[in-house]
Write a structure and sequence with these properties.
Layout (H helix, E strand, L loop, with lengths): L25 E7 L5 E10 L2 E4 L7 E9 L7 E7 L6 E3 L5 E4 L10 E10 L4 E2 L4 E8 L13 E6 L7 E4 L17 E6 L4 E3 L5 E4 L10 E9 L9 E11 L7 E2 L3 E7 L7 E8 L10 E4 L6 E6 L4 E6 L10 E9 L15 E10 L6 E2 L4 E6 L7 E4 L2 E2 L8 E6 L6 E3 L4 E4 L10 E10 L6 E11 L7 E2 L16 E8 L16 H5 L6 E2 L8 E5 L1
Parallel strand pairs: 3-10, 11-17, 19-25, 27-34
Antiparallel strand pairs: 1-2, 2-4, 4-7, 5-8, 6-7, 8-9, 8-10, 12-15, 13-16, 14-15, 16-17, 18-20, 20-23, 21-24, 22-23, 24-25, 26-29, 28-32, 30-33, 31-32, 33-34, 35-36, 36-38, 37-38
């Protein structure tokens, strides 16, 4: 028997359904007459729907009454109660059928109880009719405040986000009955966070109401309140906090705080030497604060690189400097962020610049020869003290120290040099002994003997005709006694140790004595120009 049937349509107002009544189902049963004949007896249960409000402090709170009616009244009936909470939570007056709640109920723990009622004839101890099943509903009161089960919250939003940008949605829950008197109907409001944030009352969506700059403040604490009963009087509330952090966007360009840097570099510094550092500052963080330094005048002498860990600009010597040629430099450097989103380019329209003044330090440098090497010529046989050539070196420094020259050559003392750098022969030279002489000339500063330079000097000894021709061999010629007239019996040749641009040619002839009294003749082959030789015919 379904005793929980509801009739919300009776008055057309759903919110009043707990107070409406209904009649229990009636049944017609056939009963056996004590005399053996059959007769029909109609037995009816009559009861209203039963409701009890939760958290009632009174004991024995009357809920309603069960009635069982038959054709013949019998005052010996008793009502009995069975089912959920019977005897402990609910009791019944056995004579009147009135139901009572004897304990305080909590709808959030249990919102309905199903019980059975029975009528007993005390005379026979038997049930008069069938059991009746019915429900007791526990009605809600607003005894639970809203709770944010996921709080506290944290959200991250880019700085400078436009108004109405959604940040996060917070949600509270209410254990009360959402269908009864708006007890679980929530509205959200902002207790802390104006004027930068607002919240939608129905959805709990937090939105930006004013642009924020991370560089001024990078996080905000927002306090949200949720009220039930749509905020009407008597509503309960709960709160939660939201930590809103602003993430960085590249809305700040790097800026030099110093308009002029001064650096020094020695003229003896090798290329690649770090001569100083510069530093710009960017209020952004992370990748947005990465910097790139650029020399604007396309300097051939200096370069600048970025230390990506410290974001410093390191000035590097790209080409050696010379104090005597240029003793100071002026460099203009700009700085920028290498990666900027297109929509943020307006913040980087003009780059920051600074000036670097570099002073070159003078160093005591060794003498410098005017040529990287020297080549001189002198004829062999020139007398002692003949001039070979002059080398020249100067002190590149401003003090212009006087120079002293010296010759360093192994195993020879054929040359000497004076203070003017002029090389002289110390003894006659013989080209046939040595056609070239390799000298090492050193130039030393008189004011600082540790400053020394040296260069190679090559001296070529030129040939003069100071050597007579010589026969190539010590000839011994043999001839047969029957040799015919005109027969060639020997070919002779000569050599000359002197150097000639062209091949040597010799003229051969017999001595005067041999010409007058000789059985042999000499034919000079000079006319043939083939070789410097002559033949003897018999």
């Amino acid at each position: 028997m379904n005793c929980c049937f509801l009739l919300p349509f009776m008055l057309g107002i759903p919110l009043l359904w707990p107070y409406l009544t209904a009649t229990g189902n009636s049944k017609t049963e056939e009963a056996e007459h004590p005399g053996g004949s059959h007769w029909r007896v109609k037995r009816d249960w009559v009861w209203n729907q039963f409701f009890v409000q939760e958290e009632m402090n009174r004991t024995n709170h009357s809920i309603g009454q069960l009635k069982f009616g038959i054709d013949n009244e019998n005052n010996n009936y008793q009502y009995k109660l069975f089912g959920d909470g019977a005897g402990s939570t609910f009791v019944i007056n056995e004579e009147t059928g009135v139901l009572y709640a004897v304990q305080k109920l909590d709808r959030e723990e249990r919102d309905r109880y199903t019980l059975r009622a029975q009528v007993i004839d005390t005379a026979t101890g038997r049930a008069v009719g069938p059991d009746s099943e019915f429900c007791i509903r526990v009605t809600d009161i607003n005894d639970n405040e809203p709770k944010f089960l996921d709080g506290p919250y944290e959200a991250i939003i880019p700085e400078m986000s436009p108004e109405e940008t959604s940040v996060i949605q917070v949600t509270a829950s209410d254990a009360d009955d959402p269908s009864f008197s708006y007890n679980a109907h929530l509205v959200y409001s902002l207790l802390q966070g104006q004027p930068y944030f607002s919240i939608e009352a129905k959805t709990g969506i937090i939105r930006i109401s004013s642009k924020m700059d991370r560089e001024l403040q990078d996080e905000y604490w927002v306090i949200i309140q949720a009220k039930d009963k749509i905020g009407l009087p008597g509503a309960l509330s709960g709160t939660t906090s939201v930590l809103i952090k602003l993430s960085d966007v590249n809305d700040n360009k790097p800026v030099f705080k110093t308009s002029l840097y001064r650096m020094n570099v020695s003229e003896s510094a090798p290329t690649g030497t770090s001569i100083g550092k510069i530093m710009a500052y960017d209020n952004d963080i992370g990748d947005n604060a990465e910097m790139e330094y650029i020399i604007e005048d396309d300097s051939q002498t200096f370069d600048i690189v970025t230390n990506h860990e410290t974001q410093e600009g390191i000035v590097i010597l790209k080409k050696k400097v010379d104090f005597e040629q240029q003793n100071n430099y002026r460099i203009k450097v700009k700085v920028k962020n290498p990666h900027v989103d297109e929509q943020l380019l307006k913040y980087h329209a003009e780059t920051s610049t600074t000036i670097i003044k570099v002073q070159v330090g003078d160093e005591d440098e060794p003498p410098v020869f005017h040529l990287p090497h020297y080549v001189f010529e002198i004829s062999e046989g020139s007398p002692q003290g003949s001039s070979v050539g002059t080398v020249s070196a100067t002190d590149p420094d401003q003090k212009k120290s006087p120079i002293r020259y010296s010759i360093h050559i192994t195993g020879s003392s054929a040359f000497c040099i004076d203070d003017n750098g002029t090389i002289f022969t110390a003894s006659p030279l013989d080209r046939e002994m040595s056609a070239w002489h390799n000298l090492s000339i050193k130039a030393t500063e008189k004011n600082n003997v540790e400053q020394i330079s040296s260069i190679p000097v090559y001296v070529q000894v030129l040939n003069i005709n100071d050597n007579a021709p010589e026969f190539s061999d010590n000839y011994k010629t043999y001839v047969c006694e029957n040799a015919g007239s005109g027969q060639i019996i020997q070919t002779i040749s000569a050599v000359d140790r002197d150097k000639s641009i062209e091949d040597h040619y010799f003229s051969f002839n017999l001595s005067v004595e041999d010409t007058q009294n000789s059985s042999f003749t000499l034919i000079d082959n000079q006319a043939s120009k083939k070789s410097p030789s002559s033949t003897y015919p018999s």
